[in-house]
Structure to design on (1017 residues):
């Protein structure tokens, strides 16, 4: 039985209650989305106004929070967010298990190599010459192209696609409708039409990379487009051909990285930012949301705006703008004095 | 026979012609894309210059439009746009019918519940424990994950995917390659690599929601990511984990909404706008195209720019900027006076 | 045998070496990603610092480059980039061949027409009434809707989808997870919910169009959304309903084009730009990255910023902004003079 009594909540959170209760908790909720059998938490004082109308049976708060003045059941503890996470994990549904085996409707091409304990779901496609290492999961309708290699313990969610010859490391996660290895956007422009430049390289996803839904990573013109070990890509991101991204970066949704950009390690790129082609971004840089990067960045730079400048410069520009009406007033006073 | 004579056009539009004609109309067209058997309309005076070169057999105009000076056949009526829509619907091809039944190549898992009059197309996947209510359509190669529930009269277009346990309401439309319930983007950062935070919640799409092609909606860390009743999402939108969107909102393409944002009812968010994490957007707000919202919005606010400010403030800033060269000139005159 | 000796490299590049060598080259690489059996090139002097640490066995440079002072093997030639491309093509893996034939797991509907030498892969779906012309390739799990026509020599990559009645020309390339012909985003707003406007038109992709991964092109309200001959669309682009795009345009990733926009020929739209609804963009315009176009553009205009203005105006605004602090200083001096 998964339901928790107050005494069990107190034990998990190492907390104290502001009163006794025989409440039974059987799920977690946000403050605004609860019921008398759910537990919620105040993670940030800015949500304090939500306590009054919350229907949650128990609210976790930190030890400094003054529970007087609210007629409801609180559990005070050192770290409400961490305690809440533990309780959420207690209530979490069982993880979906993909029992190893190859579904009879999957397509398995010629000369493929399928490791031990691999799951290949209904309608999944493994083209000729592909290899899937041990303990990997290829979900329904996912596509593994010719001569692709998939490392151990990786998972391809439904409708994900890896085009021919690309290399996927170990423990890689590919979310639905992502596309690994589509053609780079390269043409020789012409007045009578543009000539396609063959894109004969590949994409290499190193170990522990995660690629979000509908994220697209183009294969190299030649050589490799590389996503370094441990880098995490959110949904709907475009990575151009021949881009090389280092280790342990975070890239948030709807970012566009143009061709041949090189990005260091531990770089963070926030949502909807863009980077022009052929630039070099140093280790540890932070590119803020919607920024448009048009020059190389030194290690550790923090940039915002379009074209992207340092945060200091961005804010200074805005302060300058606000000065204009004051300047105009002062100038008018001087002019009037000497009319 | 679907072709229409002038007399029939006059009847449908309750209009009058500037001359008689035995023209036969068998399709609708825009002004620039017609032929002598098509009918077009002038919906906006800014397109007036297109009349001269239009090849359309009949052009619908409003009663105030002066047809003299053009040597062509006009039908004047009260609302040309509405009349044109009626005629377009007359010529519309029959709607594609999906005859109820389960294709022999569909995958139907264990312990599924399939209602009356349901269509399940070739290659569609219904995983264990899923349930599809009456009159729904699951198109070819669509994916319905473990324990997902799909309400009555909903349609999943080809290649759409709903991951495990998500809840889809009645009359919901999911367009191709959309992804409902992929993992939220949550990690514990670390110097030796980032640790994935399990995303054990779900996505709930309430009744009458529409989700565009390649739009991605992440499942909650725990609890639910919620899209409220009647809300319409365009293509290529990112909705982060634990976002809660109210009823009857419009969200246009390429918008990014970061995790835990709460959005009220009847909010409009235009193309390529973004909202930072954990913000609260009041009922009836309008966020203009490309705006970047970085603070809570009160009900009814209209914002633009990055960072987003009121429209008034945004325009004021631009006017200030234009003043600078004038200020410089006036200052120079004063300086010269006292040299 | 594909490996190349120095003499063969000299022949292909019509170049000269700075010393003799018995090096054997068997792959191409970038400067930073090579080994002693790879050949690289210096395409741009800004990468000159990468030469020192490069492990490439041979580096192609132009005839003006001074090879003295580097202890490595150079081949000097007229156009290092072009020579490199020739050598890369020499080493390119064989193109994936899709042997004509219909896989037994493909779905072929009623009244379809399949031309000569067509490949239809495993799990591909051809709905009733569709027609595929000679020499086309429909990859695994791709979807061809009811009454769709696909011209000769076209390729639909895995998981691409073309909805009912759309027209695809000859030599068209559709990348994975693109969606052609999903419903336009059209509703009659209402206080009790928004009413969907039927989208009964189609999408027409003319000859030699290329559509990137996860790009979405909405069908017309009525009539046609048109992508003109030879136009190339990158990944993750949104094209709204009734948009008409001319011939030989380039549109880069994450661009949003709202409904009923008309775009001329040879227009370039860079990444993350957007165009508001119903605008007209003249032939040969260039819209820079992240620009937001809110007015019609005359032929040949080059615009940037949000709202988009001419490049000249955009830069002028930034220069003005930088003047403010100087103006303030000069004003202060005048004020002090007359205190």
């Amino acid at each position: 039985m998964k339901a928790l009594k107050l005494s069990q909540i107190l034990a998990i959170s190492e907390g104290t209650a502001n009163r006794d209760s025989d409440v039974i908790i059987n799920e977690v909720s946000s403050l605004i989305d609860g019921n008398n059998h759910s537990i919620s938490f105040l993670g940030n004082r800015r949500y304090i106004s939500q306590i009054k109308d919350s229907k949650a049976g128990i609210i976790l708060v930190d030890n400094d929070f003054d529970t007087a003045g609210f007629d409801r059941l609180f559990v005070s503890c050192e770290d409400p967010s961490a305690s809440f996470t533990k309780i959420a994990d207690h209530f979490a549904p069982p993880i979906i298990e993909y029992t190893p085996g190859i579904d009879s409707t999957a397509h398995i091409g010629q000369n493929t190599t399928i490791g031990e304990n691999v799951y290949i779901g209904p309608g999944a496609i493994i083209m000729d010459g592909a290899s899937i290492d041990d303990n990997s999961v290829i979900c329904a309708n996912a596509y593994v192209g010719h001569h692709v290699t998939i490392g151990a313990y990786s998972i391809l969610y439904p409708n994900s696609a890896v085009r021919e010859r690309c290399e996927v490391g170990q423990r890689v996660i590919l979310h639905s409708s992502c596309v690994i290895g589509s053609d780079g956007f390269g043409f020789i422009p012409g007045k009578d039409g543009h000539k396609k430049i063959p894109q004969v390289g590949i994409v290499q996803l190193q170990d522990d990379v995660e690629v979000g839904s509908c994220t697209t990573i183009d294969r190299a013109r030649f050589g490799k487009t590389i996503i370094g070990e441990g880098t995490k890509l959110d949904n709907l991101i475009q990575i151009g051909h021949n881009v090389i991204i280092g280790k342990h970066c975070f890239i948030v949704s709807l970012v566009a990285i143009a061709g041949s950009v090189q990005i260091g390690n531990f770089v963070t790129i926030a949502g909807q930012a863009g980077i022009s082609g052929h630039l070099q971004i140093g280790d540890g840089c932070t590119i803020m949301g919607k920024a448009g990067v048009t020059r190389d960045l030194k290690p550790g730079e923090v940039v915002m705006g379009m074209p992207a400048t340092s945060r200091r410069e961005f804010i200074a520009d805005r302060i300058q703008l606000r000065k204009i009406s004051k300047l105009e007033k002062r100038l008018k006073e001087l002019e009037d004095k000497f009319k």
Notes: Chain C has four helices and 40 strands. The domain at 101-311 of chain C is CATH 2.160.10.10 (UDP N-Acetylglucosamine Acyltransferase; domain 1).
